[in-house]
Design brief:
The structure holds 2 protein chains of 2 kinds. Chain A is of the alpha/beta class. Chain A contains 17 helices and 17 strands. Helices cover 39% and strands 12% of the residues of chain B. The chains are: A alpha/beta, B alpha/beta.
């Protein structure tokens, strides 16, 4: 959606201020549509069957106006369904990027069953905690290496027995794809891919099985556009574009430029006839090396390139922590909504079930810092109190340097939160190691009735610190 | 009834039957129906509802005709009327969404084109680091950064200068992550050897001498004593250099002013002037000695504008002697803020903001402060295994730097040599400077890996 004025969406709404959506007025609902915090389906009267004469045309127009600049394609089914594409801006500060590109990790039909099951389980179970959430891997890409349709179908079936995650079926042979679809179509996999050689058969498959389809025309945007038009004219519009991912050399430069061109055409130029989501193949890094570290690093670097500029979904290989972890964080950082506050409410929080003997920690109200400390305490079963001091969302190190956290601010924050150290058995609290220099002044401020202990510089080391330092010696 | 029927009566009749949904249909004087296809479209559903309304009108007209005694029944096929007024069949609605499926014989031919960004009108300032003997310095060669006319690696304009890396050298041994320390253990007590190793073995474009021993809380080395290390480094290597203080706002003014004197004419990058210290003194020291001033702010675009403006207007630093450090928050530790702050600064510069169109620097070494870069295991027991930290660390520095390269950074302050090599390789690849045989990627599905 390019529209930024609620007034221009209001005119398509019933304008009755009926309140069914929970907003006081239709104008407020229009503002919610602009902010992407509301969905049009939440305007019940607009969709009511009996109102179609009255609102049918408005609804159609509204749908067109609010449709995303990069088309949105749904892959997978049920609660595992993924949104692919749907982006509206070129640069994240212009609003936000909405749908982080799913990472699909590969398996092949040439793997023996034990290896296959092990790898699928690894993909299925991978997770990492970050800012209050679990990051996970979204998809499995099944590659046809043998070229054998029956083997491919058996592989797809085995994968589905071991994960609910949506699939990408990868083969250029329509017979192989058909065999895979026979066992998986109900889960709405993405098929990869139609090419200039097989497009008729693959179009028929996409139509017969009602699944989204990738169009692969590497390094030829004219050809890719022509194929997209042909599919659209056939009525097949759940398309994903593969403009080619070269892993090295000058072709790599061309690859990135093609991604940028496609994103710009869709988002900045509104080329509605060629605005489908785009797939990147960082897995191609492995065509340039056999060295496992080199391969994992270069794949990570390629993934970063296309996460930042223009990919809506990607196929990956390396599940090594030194590849998955940095890419997960990079994707998270790029797709974080810059409009949402990154602060937690200042105050005293309980972790687990603290008692009078439990330690009292403090940190800043920067969400990243707070959730990191909270997770380090919680996952190590340290029942405790945790004070979030209001530093305007600045982390410990920077706020110590910048004066957003000071000894007197800490004392005031404890007082405001109603912390009564007299009711603790230890009469102490634990400073972040980065704020160690405050301990003397805090002792003075509390008249030596409450002890400011110095904790580790990284909260990940709190468990070790607890073993040596807790409870404090009298 | 019984009176003359005219068009306005018919219109009234239509109005009474609530045919508002027929917007776009006007009834002309000769009772020709004109359908504005653009308004409602002529899809099956529209046709259905339109038919329904017209049929209702027809029924009324038929009744009127009967009232006049005209034998209308003979003109009508009753079956057709019955069909027209039955409810909309579900199949018809479905048919509206799925047109008949037909595969054409050939692919459509199409031409794709996309324009350049016309709002990018202003070039980023080009800044020269280092000066040769002929230019009043002693460097073997100079390095130019900045000068972009487009976002990094975009096709809108060629990037005139590649991003460069300056490796950190400290004037005393410091604590560092194991994966970094292993590369410098043999030179940590000698900044000159450290600088040599950075340039010769690790292909640093520049080296940065950080005079951290001057911090009153560390060794409180005097400015005069500390800058001898700068002289040693200038002797040891002939690449352009950067000089950093300890970060103590009072002491740095004195230390960096003195450093400027010993680097007279070298166009060294002096790190840094900030709003928290006497920026004017540092700016003026750079001007007086022909060095380049690094303008450091903390993740705030307006502060960056303010500092750049003050350095130019008050301290008199020329445009070609300013580089910005808008602060590097590392991957997973707020990189989104650093990335977007830099991207906004670069876009503003390209669009003509003359207080922001300077090259940018990144303290990429900050990546090593992230626990994922150095910690042995996850403190969260439910995380998937974190693997070997010796492999995690370098990629953390690579991706922190590379992300910010995509946002517009021109010079990277780094430490791990593997990270330096990868950052150089990817940024130069994206500029088309790395010639390599690209494999045939059309076979990727069946690749062995």
């Amino acid at each position: 959606m390019k529209e930024s004025s609620p007034l221009n969406l209001y005119k398509f709404l019933p304008q009755t201020n009926c309140g069914e959506c929970g907003e006081q007025t239709c104008m407020a609902f229009a503002a919610g549509l602009i902010a992407r915090s509301r969905k049009i389906e939440e305007c019940k009267p607009l969709f009511d069957e009996k109102n179609q004469k009255k609102y049918g045309k408005k609804l159609d127009q509204l749908k067109t106006v609010i449709s995303p600049e990069v088309a949105l394609v749904y892959v997978g089914a049920g609660d595992k369904q993924l949104k692919v594409g749907g982006e509206d801006v070129m640069y994240r500060h212009q609003m936000t990027f909405f749908n982080k590109p799913p990472f699909a990790y590969d398996v092949t039909d040439a793997m023996n069953e034990a290896d296959l099951v092990e790898r699928v389980k690894l993909i299925d179970a991978w997770k990492k905690f970050y800012i209050g959430n679990w990051e996970t891997v979204e998809m499995v890409a099944v590659r046809s290496v043998t070229g054998d349709a029956a083997k491919f179908a058996a592989c797809v079936k085995k994968v589905m027995e071991n994960t609910e995650k949506p699939l990408i079926l990868c083969s250029f042979d329509p017979k192989v794809l058909k065999a895979g679809l026979e066992v998986s179509a109900a889960k709405r996999p993405l098929i990869y891919a139609a090419t200039k050689d097989n497009w008729k058969e693959v179009a028929q498959l996409a139509f017969d099985y009602k699944v989204p389809v990738t169009l692969s025309v590497p390094f030829d945007l004219d050809g890719l556009k022509g194929m997209a038009q042909t599919f659209a004219e056939m009525g097949i519009k759940d398309l994903v574009l593969d403009p080619g991912t070269a892993p090295n050399g000058e072709k790599l430069q061309e690859s990135l430029q093609n991604f940028i061109k496609l994103r710009r055409a869709a988002v900045e130029e509104g080329q509605k006839d060629f605005n489908y989501p785009v797939i990147a193949l960082p897995i191609n890094a492995w065509m340039t090396t056999k060295d496992p570290v080199r391969g994992a690093y270069w794949e990570s670097v390629l993934a970063a390139t296309f996460v930042i500029r223009g990919a809506d979904i990607m196929i990956r290989h390396s599940l090594e922590p030194h590849s998955v972890m940095p890419d997960m964080h990079l994707r998270f950082n790029i797709y974080t909504d810059p409009r949402t506050p990154v602060q937690v409410k200042p105050g005293l929080y309980k972790v687990g079930n603290p008692t009078e003997d439990s330690p009292v920690f403090l940190t800043t109200n920067f969400a990243l810092t707070y959730y990191t400390v909270e997770s380090d305490l919680g996952s190590n079963n340290i029942d405790s109190y945790l004070l979030a001091v209001n530093t305007d969302g600045i982390g410990v190190q920077a706020s110590v340097a910048g004066g957003q956290i000071t000894p007197s601010k800490i004392k005031d924050a404890f007082a405001e939160a109603g912390m009564d150290f007299e009711k603790t058995s230890h009469k102490s609290f634990i400073l972040p190691g980065m704020a160690a220099k405050f301990s003397g002044e805090l002792d003075d401020l509390y008249g030596y009735k409450v002890k400011a202990l110095v904790g580790p510089e990284d909260s990940g080391r709190i468990p070790g610190w607890m073993e040596k330092q807790w409870p404090p010696k009298k | 009834m019984g009176e003359k029927l005219n068009i306005s009566d018919l219109n009234k009749q239509l109005a009474e039957m609530d045919v508002k949904s027929l917007e776009g249909v006007t009834i002309e004087g000769d009772i020709e129906l004109e359908i504005d296809a653009g308004a409602g479209g002529a899809g099956p559903l529209f046709a259905y509802y339109f038919g329904e309304e017209v049929a209702k009108v027809a029924v009324q007209l038929v009744n009127m005709a009967k009232a006049f005694g005209y034998p209308v029944e003979s003109l009508l096929q009753p079956v057709a009327v019955a069909q027209a007024i039955s409810p909309a069949p579900a199949e018809l609605a479905a048919a509206a969404a799925i047109p008949a499926f037909k595969i054409p014989d050939t692919l459509a031919s199409a031409k794709f084109s996309v324009g350049t960004d016309k709002t990018w009108k202003t070039q980023v300032q080009e800044v020269q680091l280092g000066a040769t003997k002929a230019e009043g310095g002693s460097r073997g060669h100079v390095i130019k950064i900045g000068g972009e006319k487009a976002m990094p690696f975009f096709f809108d304009a060629v990037m005139p200068n590649r991003p460069v890396v300056t490796i950190d050298v400290f004037d005393m041994p410091i604590g560092m992550a194991k994966a970094v320390k292993m590369h410098y253990e043999d030179v940590m007590n000698d900044p000159a050897d450290w600088a040599k190793k950075a340039v010769k073995e690790f292909k640093a474009d520049l080296v940065t001498t950080h005079l951290i021993s001057t911090d009153p809380l560390i060794k409180d080395t005097s400015a005069k004593e500390a800058v001898k290390v700068v002289e040693d480094v200038l002797q040891a290597v002939d690449v352009p250099i950067c000089i950093g203080g300890s970060g103590n706002p009072e002491k740095d003014v004195e230390v960096l002013s003195k450093a400027c004197e010993v680097a007279q004419g070298e166009r060294a990058l002096i790190a840094s002037a900030s709003l928290n210290l006497d920026w004017e003194a540092i700016g003026k020291a750079c001007v007086a000695t022909d060095n380049v001033c690094l303008a450091w702010t903390q993740l705030e675009i307006n502060s960056q504008k303010e500092l750049d403006r003050k350095l130019m207007k008050v301290a008199g630093v020329p445009r070609d002697s300013i580089v910005m450090d808008p602060t590097t928050a590392a991957l997973a530790y707020g990189m989104d803020f650093a990335y977007t702050n830099m991207e906004r600064i670069r876009l503003a510069g390209l669009k003509g903001d003359e207080e922001l169109n300077f090259p940018m620097s990144s303290g990429t070494t900050n990546a090593w402060g992230v626990r994922e870069a150095w910690m042995v295991n996850s403190p969260n027991k439910n995380d998937s295994p974190w693997g070997d930290r010796m492999l995690r660390g370098p990629i953390w520095e690579i991706l922190t730097g590379f992300s910010l390269a995509m946002a517009g950074v021109d010079i990277f302050m780094m430490m791990n040599p593997i990270a330096v090599a990868y950052l150089q390789e990817i940024t130069q690849s994206l500029m088309g400077l790395v010639k390599a045989q690209t494999p045939d990627t059309t076979n990727w599905i069946s690749m062995e890996v």
